[in-house]
# Entry
Amino acid sequence: MKRYLSREFWGRPAPLAVLGAIAVLILMCACGAIYLGATIADFRAHTYKAVGPAMDPTIHDGQVLTTQDYGKASPHRFDIVLFHPPIDPSARYVQRIIGLPGEVVEVRETAVIINGKPLAESYLAPQYGGNYGARYRDSKNEHLTLQKDQYYVLGDNREVSIDSRNFGAVSRSAIMAQVVAIT
# Structure
């Protein structure tokens, strides 16, 4: 041990083993930083300002929404998501996921039926409740079987919301992020 602490040892050129160990350590740190950067990029957060009453009473016009990218994860029922609607891919809508891939979604007046069973929607306030399905008569969207990577979205304020009752299913690729905070 004394040999490695002496001036004579460190005064000479460093042994190849030490240089190799330092190179491996630097390489491991670089790989770790790249992995961490890629992981953080999958879950980056953004903020957006809500526009319009489509999500009342959950989200009001002008509130700030913090979103988080899904990365490789799949959206879940009742997630509030930011997406590009099929009717205008340059626009951004905020709505709630109601139907998942492979499900049959029916909208009947004041009820949403998923695979033949009524969906309990406790988040709807009485004044915003009901789906107003009769107002949006469009045979392809009243009874819709969702394909792989398709989602059915509805606004919480069903009377004024333009959603899957109007434009049909939303593809997974059009879903930008999940709303994780409302301020």
Q: What stands out?
A: The first strand starts at residue 45 and ends at 49. The longest helix spans residues 16-42.
